[in-house]
Specification:
alpha/beta, Ubiquitin-like (UB roll), 5-stranded mixed beta sheet
Amino acid sequence: MNITVNGHTCWAKPGETILDVANREGIKIPTLCHMSDFSPTGSCRICTVEVEDGGSLVPACAYPVYEGMDVRTNSPRVRRARKTIIELLVANHPQDCLFCVRSGNCELQKLTQEYGVRDHRYRGERRRARIDIASPAIERDPEKCILCGRCVRVCHEVQHVGAIDFVHRGFKSAVAPALERSLNTVPCVDCGQCVVNCPVGALTEKSHQKPVWEAINDPDRFVAVQVAPAVRVALAEEFGADPGTVATGKTVAALRRLGFDRVFDTNFSADLTIIEEATELIGRLKEGGTIPMLTSCSPGWTKFLEHYYPDLIDNLSSCKSPHEMEGALLKSYYAQKIGVDPSKMFVVSVMPCTAKKYEAQRPELGGEYPDVDVVITTRELARMIRVAGIDFHKLPNEGFDDPLGESTGAGAIFGAAGGVMEAALRTAHFYLTGSDMKSLSFAPIRGLDGVKQADVRIGDVTLKVAAVSGLKNIKPLLDDIRAGRSPFHFIEVMACPGGCINGGGQPLPSTPEKIRKRTESIYQIDRESPRRCSHRNESVQKLYADFLGEPGGHEAHELLHTHYVAREEF
């Protein structure tokens, strides 16, 4: 069918909305509540357009097209309506932009600037609420909430957690956990997908920059930092680079100039995780252990299982996540190697993930000392670099410190959904056959689909595997396991859709195009690596020879493995 938009004839399909057509035609219509791939709600009304000359004002995101429709997206009436809507939102919003972490990257702030909102035309009572800071990972400021519902939809429809929802009605309407409890008292999994989808500063990561600065400035502390694979393909975005720009060397250089004593690569311990995980999987297959084995490197996912499927805890791999393994090694093997008292060592992890903040505080991780002391996100690292006055683009490319800085391409692909599975299969193939896979690229489990399945022939063994991202997608597979009808031997699970490249601590806003480009860069790192299998990491092999003994052995198990606990389902 044909419709007219701003005087130009446009082709449209039945069932499309005005916004669908406008986006395809390159016509910008502002939105706040709209989310791609979700059914429209039309709650914010920012996308208001005019249908027919002098006709109705309708929400473009929810209004279906029809033959001969005449739409105006930029008439004086439309601009006045949008400006009024923005003014009404601002009237019930704190005026603390100078202090807000989202200042300069706030969708509401951007709209006020674009539509020339310069004062408060609407004054009166404003919604008041206390900030929720009890969670170890996420802060919630209800006063900044604009009730767009994006966080609610992603929590319910993408993650199937439902930790937050709309409460009350009218002027008292709010987004909050049930009974308006704190996030840390409900089964929130700290994934941070609510944070990356919030258009304002109502949901943010819990900042841990202060203790990092304090540690760096303490002459009695030896401060080591490690960087996750997904950080190096996202950090440069914070400084204006194209999404997916690989900035490994500049990231290392920036961390050294911030004052860290050593800079290590979490990819090293990703390789280590694969060796331990592949060993564990083979052991379960040969000895009749609990199958399917579920990966355990995503803390949001493991917490989800602890809350909702505690009867399947035995299916989880006992391996710690890579950054926790690295922290454990830094405070044992490396501290011994350089003669530093572990009590004086302060370990910082730079992660794409908010759930890692919660994970670092788990009592199950660490012994006399926590494996990792503080987790900061990609966004927090960018803020620290700016505060220090470092020109990121002018930094040289520098390498990680040894020996916990060597890695393979297999360690790098941990950052993308399906990467852990692919890396594990490369090493499992070697352990079962004595040779590397002919092709190290495993297409069936790559990509951004929520569920990917494959049959993998390794020698005389056929493994049925799956790679899942987004917690909604794992529930049917868990139900099958619970019912005893799962066909799989090994399942990778990532809490965030697309994996760590779309973690709750990554640069904002998060878009499908950014996620795709970051993923492409992750696999580019793998292709360009001189070694692409975890078992080919020479520093890891030396670690086993000098310190850990054999993979899956007593020393390795004591230091690199953990356990999980059943949690209350709210």
